[in-house]
Design brief:
Elements: H1 10-20, E1 46-50, E2 56-63, H2 90-102, E3 108-112, H3 119-135, E4 141-145, H4 152-161, E5 164-166, H5 174-180, H6 186-201, E6 211-218, H7 225-237, E7 243-248, H8 259-262, H9 268-287, H10 309-316, H11 330-333, H12 341-352, H13 368-377, H14 382-389
Parallel strand pairs: 2-3, 3-4, 4-5, 5-6, 6-7
Antiparallel strand pairs: 1-2
Length: 394
């Protein structure tokens, strides 16, 4: 039985619980300066985040409790560990939130928790806090964590109170999940709740405005990137998720028998690069029209750590190039390494105004992406030479 500190004041509890909430990224971007790695210098429970609709806001983010009955091998808060444990009362959370909200330091709330006794008891606390806020006329953004194993009734109540909900899938498939945790059932406790949320929030339903997100822990089990991408594709296309986040497992916080601790194939730096590559793939799928079967993997099933996924696709599809930027469709332009939506939209505006583009220099100042392409121009890679010649890389 963990020792729970009951003499701490609200500020002291927040200091502990906001720090422990860093492992949940389901309301952060993960790829920009305002992502999950940056927090307010003063109040650590105030997080600048990018919401699923790409708006930047500040959320009051904390766990209700870091007490947890589960023994997930990758989690530093697992039951067999002895961190400084504490629990916030519902009234403490509400009072602290309104203090910062009325001071205009935050605009919304992200609420999660370790499993206090049972999933249902924990969800009752999470939903109670959200309910109190709503009854006190708070109409702003609330993101609630769904606890694995929660009942359908508790999930429905959370959806009715929140703007966004999330339950972390953690990894791809039953086999990989069982390497991480034996106290939860992957299908019953994780996948089924995701399906329930999807049904409650699908288009045309009462709660269609509510967004659903999730998170993968990358490198804690033996999963490969192609497995993660396969599951991500299914979550987006079949279960209607709004965003998927990736968190690189960093060695030293899990149990010694965790696959991610035993395997020395990838360093912590490699795992962070894997996280970055998965975010790039996520962007290609959500914003660039790429399909799951178009993502290029190495022989081991992982993404290249040296080359970004879009450039890898270009290298493996030389028949697609060169692309004439004065005639190509938007879809074709977005396939060009170095070209993003901003530059492509600028190209299309030039063309709409009857202007013929002779050089990419006409579209704006050079940046890091152009320097990257210049590096390839010095190689013998004909595909890149064609791209440079036709002025299609920026």
């Amino acid at each position: 039985m963990p020792w729970i500190h009951k003499s701490l004041n609200t500020f002291e509890k927040l200091k502990i619980l906001s720090q422990d909430s860093q492992y949940d990224l389901a309301c952060a971007c993960g790829t920009k300066e305002s992502d999950h790695r940056h927090r307010s210098l003063n109040d650590k429970w105030i997080y600048p985040v990018v919401l699923p609709d790409q708006k930047i806001t500040f959320l009051f983010k904390t766990l209700i409790s870091n007490v947890c009955v589960n023994n997930c091998k990758y989690c530093p808060l697992r039951a067999d560990q002895d961190p400084k444990r504490c629990t916030l009362k519902a009234e403490e959370v509400v009072k602290a939130f309104f203090k910062y909200y009325n001071a205009k330091k935050v605009k919304g709330l992200f609420l999660s928790s370790g499993v206090i006794g049972t999933p249902e008891k924990t969800m009752d606390q999470i939903n109670r806090i959200a309910s109190i806020l709503r009854k006190n006329s708070f109409k702003g953004y609330i993101h609630l964590k769904i606890i694995p194993g929660a009942s359908e009734a508790a999930i429905k109540e959370a959806v009715s109170l929140a703007n966004a909900v999330s339950i972390n899938i953690e990894t791809a498939g039953v086999k990989n999940f069982n390497e991480l945790c034996t106290s939860k059932n992957y299908i019953k406790d994780i996948i089924n709740p995701i399906k329930i949320i999807n049904k409650l929030t699908e288009k045309g339903t009462r709660y269609s405005r509510v967004k659903q997100t999730t998170q993968f822990v990358v490198g804690a089990s033996h999963e490969t990137d192609d497995e993660i991408v396969k599951y991500s594709w299914g979550l987006y296309k079949r279960l209607g998720l709004s965003r998927i986040y990736f968190s690189a497992y960093q060695r030293g916080i899990g149990r010694p028998d965790l696959p991610g601790e035993v395997s020395l194939d990838q360093t912590n730096s490699d795992l962070l690069t894997r996280e970055h590559r998965l975010y790039q793939v996520d962007w290609l799928i959500r914003k660039y029209g790429f399909k799951e079967n178009e993502i290029c993997f190495e022989k081991d099933g992982n993404l290249s750590l040296l080359t970004d996924p879009k450039e890898m696709w270009a290298i493996r599809h030389p028949d697609f190039f060169p692309v004439n930027i004065n005639k190509a469709h938007k879809f074709e332009l977005l396939r060009i390494p170095g070209l993003g939506h901003v530059t492509v939209d600028r190209i299309l505006r030039h063309r709409k105004n009857g202007m013929k583009i002779k050089s990419i220099d006409e579209l704006g100042k050079h940046g890091k992406r152009l320097k990257k392409s210049e590096k390839y121009a010095n190689s013998k890679c004909e595909i890149i030479k064609h791209l440079i010649f036709f002025g299609v890389i920026s």
